């Protein structure tokens, strides 16, 4: 293999952010381009440090507060201007890119899609706000009116495009079932926005059942089950959220609540059925606790739904797709020349990832952003959950096959699992694609071991940071005072953990194939499954509130438990904006742009397999419609972007 492209300049453009290394989270891009960016960063951090630490007199404090507000307004205006001028070619040329490495910013066609989505959202918001004028209505009725107006506006603007979100599927299911039925509650574990949680209760963990197994439990058909016997028969499944157990009262925003409930399900001949929910330690609710003013069973299901969507937004979606892949989006151009075969294979699946994550820093993770406004954990607690979840998950667990085995959810135990079944088709196709491609360039394991660029890439991802060169982080000019450098975290003490947990040295061709398969699958199908399902299951707020407003031990009505009208609208706006753009298509030759004829032939074979998968899933969806009245469209190849860009 010949690699003539120097990567020195690339390593200068792509630098890791040194801030927050002690929190052990995913590696992030340093969002200040160029050496001038380092100076901008230092001045910004010094200004903020002096302000937040109370080191200035009142006049200077007031002046800096006003300056911070002005800068924030200018940044917001800059985003609006860049959207309005998206059609100007010079705007996408790099002349106005101060935050990202060259060619990492969104292109004109993407920004046009974003602008169109923003216009639809603005129209829907204006329509929905009419509900706020109806102060004589109860909060429940006002929220229902608000949602109806929001969806009607989306339907009006989305006519003619069947992929544009208009009305959440789950809102129609609630209308059909008169609320969140037990059947639908169970189905969402397999085909909702977060299908990566449920697992089979296996023999090694049956002790979890002991506290509940003192009496039989009744099913919907009147029959009873013994929990231990049911687990031995591989019929018990559990959804739990142990990471949320770490949340203390101080980690929750005032008046909001999310817990760490446990939901237990039994596999009947017709599918999963909920058996019990432990809403908090020692407080177990069963389906026979339904009805009445407080309706304990419905409340219990909502505690699970809120825990599930909290885990989904922070971990399944942000940590395990966006942020997990960001590390690779930095290391790949840093260590692989543009004509390296692995760079050519992976880079199309990393397009716009750094751009969307940088934007997400402001609209999701920033102070006063969506997490602060809508979710129960504080911003600091949310970031802590993201970092802990990322550090606990080794790279091998991102493999779909390993995940299925770990959770014990093979088809012999759960015959119908839409996410698993459709994802397996795509996993196998991607694995075949990466195998055929990489076998062209690496004849054997020795060729993999002797590729210096590949080994440098693996080392940057998998070796402890305290063994890495400081130049991977931005370097302050030598004339900058040392105390400034320390105060702004530009001279951090490097920790002894790697950037990607469990990412070892690459010693075999099969190992390289597996790694490439994980990266492409996570960037395409996995992100599509957890992202585009948000509108259908989270936009309809009663189904999956981002926060609840009463604890399990406090009697309250459903109206008191659910978000206010303002919070309801905010959740609809957020989930629409997170799933309102489909840009690029998995396997698109326009995006992958192979030049070599052999590579193009392999890509063509991949495209043919995707077309066959499309037909298979469409046939499956016809059966799903007949059985449950609901399709699973999120893994149709025609609806999977080629990269994480929304």
What does this entry look like structurally?
- The protein has helices at 8-13, 34-52, 58-84, 108-128, 139-157, 169-177, 182-191, 227-232, 296-335, 341-346, 353-365, 370-374, 379-392, 400-407, 418-441, 445-449, 452-462, 482-487, 509-531, 533-538, 558-561, 565-579, 589-592, 597-628; strands at residues 199-200, 217-218, 224-225, 236-240, 262-268, 271-280, 283-285.
- The chain has a domain at 183-296: Nuclear Transport Factor 2, Chain: A (Roll).
- It is mainly α.
- Strand 5 and strand 6 (271-280) form a beta hairpin.
- 52% of the residues lie in helices and 5% in strands.
- The strands form 2 sheets. Strands 1-4-5-6-7 form a 5-stranded antiparallel beta sheet. Strands 2-3 form a two-stranded antiparallel ribbon.
- It is globular and about 75 Å long.
């Amino acid at each position: 293999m010949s690699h003539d492209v120097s990567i020195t300049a690339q390593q200068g453009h792509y630098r890791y952010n040194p801030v927050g290394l002690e929190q052990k989270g995913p590696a992030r891009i340093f969002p200040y381009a160029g050496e001038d960016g380092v100076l901008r960063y230092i001045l910004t951090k010094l200004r903020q440090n002096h302000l937040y630490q109370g080191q200035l007199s009142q006049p200077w404090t007031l002046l800096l507060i006003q300056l911070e507000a002005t800068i924030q307004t200018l940044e917001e205006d800059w985003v609006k201007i860049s959207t309005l001028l998206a059609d100007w070619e010079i705007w996408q040329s790099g002349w106005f890119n101060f935050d990202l490495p060259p060619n990492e910013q969104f292109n004109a066609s993407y920004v046009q899609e974003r602008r169109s989505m923003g216009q639809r959202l603005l129209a829907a918001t204006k329509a929905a706000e009419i509900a706020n004028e109806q102060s004589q209505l109860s909060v429940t009725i006002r929220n229902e009116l608000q949602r109806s107006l929001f969806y009607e506006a989306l339907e009006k603007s989305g006519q003619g495009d069947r992929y544009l979100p208009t009305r959440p599927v789950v809102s129609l299911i609630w209308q059909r079932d008169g609320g969140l039925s037990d059947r639908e509650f169970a189905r969402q574990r397999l085909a909702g926005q977060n299908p990566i949680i449920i697992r089979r209760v296996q023999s090694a963990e049956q002790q979890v059942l002991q506290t509940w197994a003192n009496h039989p439990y009744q099913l919907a058909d009147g029959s009873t089950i013994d929990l231990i016997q049911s687990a031995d028969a591989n019929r018990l499944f559990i959804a739990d959220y142990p990471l949320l157990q770490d949340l203390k009262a101080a980690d929750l925003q005032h008046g909001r609540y999310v817990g760490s409930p446990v939901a237990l399900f039994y596999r009947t001949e017709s599918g999963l059925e909920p058996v019990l929910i432990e809403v908090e330690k020692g407080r177990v609710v069963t389906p026979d606790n339904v009805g009445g003013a407080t309706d304990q069973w419905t409340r219990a299901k909502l505690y699970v739904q809120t825990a599930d969507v909290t885990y989904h937004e922070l971990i399944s979606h942000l940590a395990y797709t966006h942020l997990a892949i960001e590390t690779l989006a930095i290391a790949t151009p840093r260590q692989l020349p543009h004509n390296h075969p692995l760079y050519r294979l992976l880079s199309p699946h990393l397009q716009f990832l750094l751009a969307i994550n940088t934007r997400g820093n402001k609209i999701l993770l920033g102070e006063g952003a969506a997490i602060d406004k809508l979710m129960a954990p504080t911003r600091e607690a949310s970031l802590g959950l993201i970092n802990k979840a990322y550090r606990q998950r080794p790279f091998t667990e991102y493999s779909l096959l390993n995940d299925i085995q770990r959770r014990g959810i093979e088809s012999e135990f759960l015959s119908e699992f839409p996410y698993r079944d459709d994802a397996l088709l795509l996993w196998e196709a991607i694995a075949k694609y990466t195998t055929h491609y990489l076998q062209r360039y690496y004849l054997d394991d020795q060729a993999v071991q002797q590729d210096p660029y590949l080994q440098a890439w693996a080392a940057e991802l998998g070796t402890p940071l305290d063994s890495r060169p400081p130049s991977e982080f931005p370097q302050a000019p030598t004339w900058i005072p040392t105390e400034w450098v320390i105060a702004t975290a530009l001279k951090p003490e490097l920790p002894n953990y790697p950037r990607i947990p469990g990412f070892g040295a690459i010693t075999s061709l099969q190992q390289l194939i597996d790694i490439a398969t994980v990266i492409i699958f996570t960037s395409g199908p996995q992100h599509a499954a957890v992202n585009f399902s948000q509108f259908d299951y989270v936009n309809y707020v009663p189904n999956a509130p981002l926060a609840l407003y009463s604890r399990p031990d406090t009697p309250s009505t459903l109206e008191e438990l659910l978000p206010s009208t303002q919070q309801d609208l905010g959740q609809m706006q957020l989930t629409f904006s997170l799933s309102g753009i489909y840009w690029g298509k998995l396997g698109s030759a326009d995006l992958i742009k192979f030049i070599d004829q052999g590579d193009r032939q392999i890509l063509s074979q991949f495209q043919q397999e995707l077309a066959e998968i499309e037909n298979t899933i469409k046939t499956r969806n016809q059966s799903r419609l007949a059985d449950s009245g609901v399709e699973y469209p999120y893994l149709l190849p025609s609806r999977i972007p080629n990269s994480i860009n929304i």
